[in-house]
Amino acid sequence: MSRRPPRGEYIETDTGNKVARKATLVGTQNIMLGGKTVIQPEVMIRGDLIRSIQSSSSSSSSSSGTPNNTAVAIGRYCFLSRASCLRPPGRLYKGAFTYMPLRMGDHVFVGPSSVIQAASIGSHVYIGAKVVVGEFAIIKDYVRVLDETIIPPNMVIPSFSIVAGQPARVIGEVPEGGHEAFELRELYKTVGNNPQPAAS
Amino acid sequence: MSSKRHSILPAVSAGPKPPVHFSSSITIADSALLTGTNLITISSESVIHPRAKLDSLAGRITIGRRCVVHERTMLGAIGTSGKVTEQAVTLGDYVTVEVAASIEAGNTIIGEGTTIGVGSKIGAGAVIGKHCTLTPHTEIPAGEVVPDFTVIYSNGMRRIDKRGVADLKNKGQARQIEVLRRMIPTNPAKFA
Known about the structure:
The complex is a heterodimer of chains A (200) and B (192).
Chain A: E1 10-12, E2 18-20, E3 24-26, E4 31-35, E5 38-39, E6 44-46, H1 56-60, E7 72-76, E8 79-80, E9 85-86, E10 90-93, E11 96-99, E12 102-104, E13 109-110, E14 115-116, E15 120-121, E16 126-127, E17 132-133, E18 138-139, E19 144-145, E20 150-151, E21 156-157, E22 161-164, E23 169-173, H2 185-189
Parallel strand pairs in A: 2-5, 3-6, 4-7, 5-8, 6-9, 7-12, 8-13, 9-14, 12-15, 13-16, 14-17, 15-18, 16-19, 17-20, 18-21, 19-22
Antiparallel strand pairs in A: 1-2, 10-11, 22-23
Chain B: E1 7-8, E2 20-22, E3 27-28, E4 33-36, E5 40-42, E6 47-48, E7 53-56, E8 60-63, E9 68-69, E10 74-77, E11 87-91, E12 96-97, E13 102-104, E14 108-110, E15 115-116, E16 121-122, E17 127-128, E18 133-134, E19 139-140, E20 145-146, E21 150-153, E22 157-160, H1 166-183
Parallel strand pairs in B: 2-5, 3-6, 4-7, 5-8, 6-9, 7-10, 8-11, 9-12, 10-13, 11-14, 12-15, 13-16, 14-17, 15-18, 16-19, 17-20, 18-21
Antiparallel strand pairs in B: 21-22
């Protein structure tokens, strides 16, 4: 007799993304997940806030049926913790209000209850708990953002910095040997319907 | 993600359905949460994002014209005092309430053109003046009065906003609302 597998807490896609059933993803056709990304419960991703101004060059390309409408693009091995919120930043551009896509690199850890409205986040970034990243902020690679930081809008955070405070200030630099700490492959294996114990 | 599915929105248990008074031109997302027993009034051209929660158990909620209420907000939360007044929360015109902000019930008044930053908590009975800017995670204690044009930043420090951009901000907000009205599928009939 056939037996359906028990419903796990996560939906695992064939590219290895683990999306919790209780996560709120609005407008999923505009959300690109890179692969092996974990989305925990109560995460909210606003994929419906897409760019409203389409440049004229995209309408002339006949290969794509619809212009690229990505609202949120996430890289590989990202980890979005509980109750975090990703939403594209919006601004008045050429007289009209429009939302710009939010692009995240690989190995980005977003802590619980954080709100990310950045324009782009590089790779290997650690964002702590309750962090607020203001609109159109740019975070480069290998950055460590400590807990409860508030990053003001339009701030650019250079690579290899450690950022904290309200408003955020660069308080230090990632040490030479600290690059391995940003890897999230092990963390990816510990979450999901069949969690492997964390490698100690 | 399957292309047939447009959103994953897990169901949330709802409370009593409140009486509502909507203007015809508002945009209210399908998954906004309106609960409570008192009247909720939303004036013309305001936008309520998905998963915003308006709770009128402790009194009426009145939202002015051209307001934007973002997701995960909580208007009308019953604070520690637990008092029930006739008017729980009043938002003036052109108010923006950002993601995860929380406004407690109890005659709380937010003046016109104010921006409540991400994750802020406004205590019961607070009166916020016009065109104020509250940066993210600001906490306003209960009963506090914030004068007009104040900027509250960085753990409670305050200064007066002397830029004189109130009109420009209002125009910018009107443009933003035009775009949001096209993007968020509105469903006021669900709450009527």
